[in-house]
Sequence to fold (1009 residues):
Amino acid sequence: MGSTYDARPAAILAEGWGWRHAGRPQPAIQGLDLRIEPGERVLLLGPSGAGKSTLLHALAGVLGDEEDDSDETGSLLIDGVAPRAQRGRAGLMQQDPETQVVLSRVGDDVAFGAENLCVPREEIWARVHEALDDVGLRTAAGAGLALDHPTAALSGGQKQRLALAGILAMRPGLILLDEPTANLDPEGVLEVRDAVRRCLDRTGATLVVVEHRVSVWKDLVDRVVVLQPGSGGTSASPGKSAAPGVLADGSPGKVLSEQRSMLMAAGVWVPGYVPPTRARRTGHSERGHSERGNSEPGAAELLLAAQDLAVSREKPRRRGFKSIPPVPVQSGITAQVRSGQALTIMGPNGAGKSTFALTLAGLLAPVRGQVSAAVELSQGAGIDPFTWKAEQLISRIGTVFQEPEHQFVTGKVLDELMFGPKHLGHGQERVDELLERLRLTHLVDANPYTLSGGEKRRLSVATVLAAHPKVLVLDEPTFGQDANTWAELASFLSELLDAGTAVVSVTHDQEFSSVLGGTELQLGPVPQDRESRQEAGAA
Amino acid sequence: MREALTMQGSHAVLTRANPLAKFVAVFLVSMVLALSIDWVSASTAIVAELALFPLAGLTLRLLWHRAWPLIIAAAIGGWSTAIVAADRGAVLLDVGIWSISEGSLELGLGFMLRGLAIALPAILLMTCTDPTDLADALAQKARLPHRFVLGSLAAMRLVGLMAEEWQTIGMARRARGVGSHGNPLQRLKATLGQSFGLLVQAVRRASRLAVTMEARGFGGGQRTWARESSYSLLDVWVVLGGLIIASATVLAAVGAGTWTFVWR
Amino acid sequence: MTTVNVKKTSYNWRVVDIVVAALIAIAGGVIFWAWDQGAAIISIPLDATYPPLTGIIAGGWMIPAVLGALIIRKPGAALFCETVAAASELIMGSQYGTTVLISGVLQGLGAELIFAAFRYKKFNLPTALLAGAGAGLFCGLNDCFLPWGWNIAYEALDKLTYIIFTTVSGAIIAGALSWLATRGLATTGVLSSFASRKAASEPVFN
Fold:
């Protein structure tokens, strides 16, 4: 197909630019001087709070307006014009795939942006076909997705590629990616990265991408810019040649080697760097080869067992007096959870990993088979965790959900931590210890929802541990975390393991799994049609 | 719920009609039925509606699946009308606050059938109408402001996600020790907490979705439409069908002498 | 390049206002759908004993009107949210058929009139209670006096009882709960782009 892509690559110029969000005392970004030439591909780094997202939103022309009391200083221009005055010149992709899709049919969704830019109908459809080809969602032979394919049935990676197609159909000169792969599994990450590369090669558009996982993007970009945290100011940068508001700037190779330690300290995932974590005590660091942990059989008591388990998130349906069980997403799972040992559940998306973990944790009823708690764990509460009362559950099995906010039940960090112990009639000792250990002490009065991503993750782990469960279940605990939080979490969990807690985690993260040691349970793939349903369920 | 919002693979005749025409027809029938509480007009409508269901691609089983809650609701509505409406004719039941007379029983029965006759065509309408097509018609044909129509449509797409999130939040809260069991007051408290959790996520997601839409140029005064919402001959038949059913119910009831105008 | 006019007056709806309002309405629909299963336990016995009592729980269906207006704080928010809520109820399958749209518009209007009477400047507890009551009153009137109303055949006294119940229920369930929810939401920071971002620290009565 002949290319009709006719947009010029965009140039960006920031001069003393700053932005303060409505209702915030401090600016998110301040005094930024930055020039990006047409066609450059820039990876934007910086510690959290450096205003990376703010800059991307501003470039996309979606930042604030005069009715909220936000403040802009200096100037930020695309090709010499304010971004807000030229919508469609830049296209923005954000992190959460669910909100990158606007409409329910693939074709409509790609067309949406072009429609808003008043592109004539015939041209819209030509662009839609071309854009879908570009992102690899529709082959020229027509073997890909139909235009009326429901967007709800797409995987996370496909949704992001669809969003990219929607952006391309607007013919932007600037593509802005705000952590586009942070919510994706490893396969989805590469899928999206490769689609971006293909599109850039074809369109020549300027790229600005924000992403913690540098290794994914370093070969695609030709320049790395590290923003200065907080309210930039000019004097804070230690005398380097970089411009105000910018800590480092240059080719990927140069910046990543020269600024390596600074980036590592900021929690950036620098290529080839695995943050140091606490080592498991000897005897645990080697991965077990059987279900039975090796060296210390006496210490590893059986707490929880799954026998030929079939799992689903759906409840049985009633038809008349008959109850029809749901179709399981995974079946025939057998596993054992032992004190002081890690069980890591791995496998492709849609294999029912989270569903299995939630069933094991007594939160979902098994479709078939059985989850049974040993007497050591159940302490008289009955054999099946699903039948336990909520208060009984939390002191036995603690579950940390993928999205910390789902588990917040109060309006204050301290109340949040006290919630479990209070219901169990325990004191505050454990809470103080956790606050200290997970560096939350200075936040006790804050509203949990207002914390940063890493803080929320630490809080959600702490709240569950405050009830002192013998088994800890974690669903994708390291997803989207920066290297610092990752290392902290992994070290903390290895400590818990040594102290005798059983840790069950669902993860795609091989490094994380090796830090914890223990048994790996690999769940197999399931047929394609079911996969997309599960994908949606896990999101 | 998610299934309710997609109509993948349905090729029934009525799926091809313009949503606005279908809406007008259904609304017309509903309004005319609302004017009288009598069993003849309601039954006539129900028979006609049931005959039309195959055209919307609904099998009897699917229909039953969607309609039984409405039948229960209609029955309860009929019962309450029967016991609360003014008594006329012989009193059949008089226990404490409950009294049912011949007149009120007839009214209750008519009311139940009327409720069903009004609810069924809405099911018919929604089974053969894709919300996207409806939005297209509302914005292009009914000339409702497109920002509001498309904004709602985009939000509507998140319904399935919200329903799943509701379930996840329920589990996540149980893992924190908030049970959904216990006495009604505890359950109410738990539900309110869960609702709040869902609201937070709803506002977050909606804000992000709004950014996505704005970044794709949405929000201006003008736009083009990739798909044109158009009328065809079929739509004439659809509206005509609605008119015919509406008149038939009135004629049948007046003919049978059962027509009972609501504002007597 | 297409240029977009930036809106000047704060009474104009931004994209974020529209989408958040719509999703609040729809989330309301999801909550009721989940709640319905539990509510049936309450409403069926109420209905079976003394039907006008069902007005007590009617307020739940009017939450979107008040909540939407308290968050968005723009003219038409109550009307828009309640209409969208009714539309989503219609899509999920409503026992009221298409007439649910009329009920939705009227309930939204009931709340909207109150906010308008305060010139969209007051969003405190009394306003919320009144708006809830307004929605409840209109709900009661619709159910009792309009042809499609489910209580049209009731006797006059029963109608009056029912309307009193819906009004009180609207004030408490739709009014007070929405007001509390808005303050709660404001403390979480998710309302940062709305005029209601400081709702949690606003005076209760002024």
About this structure: The helical segments of chain C are 15-49, 63-72, 77-92, 99-117, 125-145, 156-188.
